[in-house]
Amino acid sequence: MARELNKLSAVMVKQAIAGKYADGLGLWLVKADRRTGKWVLRVVVHGRRREMGLGSFTDVSLKEARDEAEKWRAVVRSGHDPIKERERQRREQQKNLHTLADVADDCFEAIKATLKGDGSAGRWMSPLTHHVLPKLGKVPVADLDQVDIRNTLRPLRDTKRETMEKALGRLNIIVRHAAALGLDVDIQVVDKAKALIGASQYQPKHIPALPWRDVPTFYASLDDASVTHLALRLLILTGVRSRPLRFLHIDHIDGDVWTVPADLMKSRKGKAEDFRVPLSPGALAVIDKSKRHARDGYLFPSARTGVISDMTMSKFMERRGLEARPHGFRSALRTWLAECTEAPHEIAEACLAHKTGSEVVNAYRRTDYLDERRRLLDRWGHYVTTAKDEGASETEASISNVVPLRVGAGA
């Protein structure tokens, strides 16, 4: 009986020519020639013959083939199809190797070239790393369902609606990336989760801003020439966002123009461009004072490594007892432009690097209104650095006498 079960030997397997050779109980060696061949297990499942490949004879030894054959015979004896069972096991293994965290990382690597600064700031992954992956990161992406997502993100619905929506958007991209990888995922799982989360009464809050009339007083209080004070002063005078200011490098400045590289600009759909900022006399004075703090060419370094953080400036204003935040100075400038100047809408928006009009209009508009913006920011700088509380109305009156700016053809 033993001989009938083990008809082949290692030498026979190696030297056999083209043909089919039985080892016993359904295990066969199928040779195409001396060098190539495979192991095949023939079994009968529910009255139907099945042939199951067990690998090349050059990769799987005779002993390994016999062990593998016995494992799958046991599956047949239990009433299951060994081929289907092997596929099921492979799917399970695949799922375990593709958790949500794994796919999220792979997805980020695939799309980061389209993100600002190659996503180095970490903002794309932030909603996931803070609110999703701690709970769902180890879940196989094929097992992810709408209830999991609902339970994870609904607590944010009435408190951090924007964060929740960003997380859902990122998850949708990741699920589609998983589908592109060939994983068995529900492509509509995020839409189903949105339906389960439902609507809320949440109203987004605007970033608190200091009223423009109070800006000169606050500016005057920034008087100790520290990195924080100087950074806030330049933020006020230029109207830029905090990121380009924090990463301001001496090489970005040429005379009285600061060119912000595209990768530091906020953009949609990866269409950021370099942005020129005209520097008023007051802004140039702040930059000159900041040079003594420079490290590796950056004018606003942190106390340890890198550059000053958003939180440094925000915490400073918080300690001053202010509800307003640094980003709000852009709102103060925009409101001042609307109330105290006759700047055309396009130029006022350009001061804040906002684009107006359609893509077609912008494609033909070949100007960034640098000279017009220079005159406006010079006036803003003069107001901020010279106005006093009791003299604000006088300053406003003097501003109203300036000849209004006109939009050039710029085509």
TrEMBL record:
InterPro entries reported for this sequence: DNA_brk_join_enz, Integrase-like_cat_sf, Integrase_catalytic, Integrase_DNA-bd_sf, Integrase_DNA_bind_dom, Integrase_recombinase_N, Phage_int_M, Phage_Integrase
Entries under Pfam families matching the protein: Arm-DNA-bind_3 (PF13356), Phage_int_M (PF22022), Phage_integrase (PF00589)
UniProt xrefs under Gene3D superfamilies: 1.10.150.130, Integrase, DNA-binding domain, Intergrase catalytic core
Keyword DNA-binding: yes
This protein's UniProt keywords: DNA integration, DNA recombination, DNA-binding
Domain annotation Tyr recombinase: ranges: 205-377
Coiled coil spans: none
UniProt record similarity statement: Belongs to the 'phage' integrase family.
Name the record gives this protein: Phage integrase family protein
Species for this entry: Filomicrobium insigne
